[in-house]
Each structure stands twice: as C-alpha cells, then as structure tokens.
Structure to design on (202 residues):
C-alpha cells in the first residue's frame, strides 16, 4: 500500500512537517510512505488552465506521479486565520480526478492554540468536488502542537491520548484504502454510461 503525506505549511521547519514525520514513523512497515512538503516545490499558482501545471520550472509533474501511485493521502494543513493554508488549497485545485478520484484522505489540522476546527470544516465543505478525493469520517486536530509529538515517549496524558487516536486514524485510513481499491477497479472495468460527462461534481 502506498500512502502519500502532504504537508501544507508555507514555512520551512514547520510544525506541520513535524507532524508529518511523526505520522510516517507510525505507519506499518508494509506501507510505502512518501512525504511532500509543499513549500519545497515552488508550485505555480493555478490559473485554471492545465498548461500552467507544467510551466517552466514547475515540479508538479513529479508530484503528480506520486499522487497517481498513492492508494491513500494524508493532508496536513496549518490553521491560518481560521482557514486551510493557501498552498494546500492551490495543491487541491491542481489535483486531477484521474489521479485522485475515489482515494481516501485523512485530514489533519495543525494549530499552535486551541482552535483548528475551521480548516477541517473548510476542506470537507469545498476541497473535493472535482478531484473526488474521499475524506475519511475521522480527522485529526493537533492543538498546542508545540507541546506534543516531540519525543519518543509521550510527555503527559494529552500527548498519550493524541498518539492513541492517531494510531486509530491511521488504521482506519488503511482499511478505507483497501476498500476503495475495489471501487476504483470497478470504475475502470464497469464504468457508468457516459461516465466522462460526470468528471466534475455538481
């Protein structure tokens, strides 16, 4: 199973990347994991035209191949002004349903304080209409992120409970990935008549 983790902070050495590294360590040995830190790729601002994705200097073709190989995604965004980060939203706009449709996505919000719910709500509401990713029912909100997931062992009860819930979410993500593999296979072998006419959501 291939799992792609995408961290969407626009800052280097971010807490989002720290969370991504922790999640990578918790995944099973038989799960092949890749981590894309979007701030490292200098992606173009998508203008609605497919050609802009492969403009000079764009590394989107490399990212696109990793998305295509993935069976599941983990999307990590910091909370900026109550929203998901601009770079994460740009990434999701660039995703093509041919690469992402009917693949599960675990949503993760990272915040230095006690909020963090708004980015999850925003992504669930309007981030998946055309790329057709399937957000899993459970999500993660990593509150007070500076104080958790910093050491090999939890430092307090909250850190311990968070790690246990992360384990559950990763377990369920793997199960959704396995189940949706069947859906994707049928999508190709038993397509709906005029299926190409419904490549965009309503």
């Amino acid at each position: 199973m291939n799992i792609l983790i995408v961290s969407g902070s626009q800052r280097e050495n971010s807490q989002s990347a720290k969370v991504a590294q922790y999640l990578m360590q918790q995944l099973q040995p038989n799960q092949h994991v890749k981590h894309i830190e979007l701030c490292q790729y200098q992606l173009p601002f998508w203008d609605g035209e497919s050609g802009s994705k492969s403009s000079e200097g764009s590394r989107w073709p490399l990212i696109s191949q990793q998305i295509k190989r993935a069976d599941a995604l983990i999307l990590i965004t910091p909370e900026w002004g109550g929203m998901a980060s601009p770079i994460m939203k740009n990434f999701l706009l660039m995703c093509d349903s041919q690469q992402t449709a009917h693949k599960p996505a675990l949503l993760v919000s990272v915040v230095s304080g006690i909020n963090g719910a708004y980015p999850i709500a925003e992504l669930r509401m309007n981030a998946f209409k055309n790329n057709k990713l399937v957000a899993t029912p459970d999500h993660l909100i990593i509150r007070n992120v500076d104080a958790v997931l910093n050491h090999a062992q939890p430092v307090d009860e909250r850190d311990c409970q968070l790690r246990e819930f992360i384990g559950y979410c990763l377990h369920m993500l793997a199960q959704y990935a396995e189940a949706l593999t069947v859906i994707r296979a049928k999508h190709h072998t038993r397509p709906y008549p005029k299926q190409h006419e419904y490549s965009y959501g309503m």
User: Anything to note?
Assistant: The longest helix spans residues 157-189. The chain has a mean pLDDT of 94.
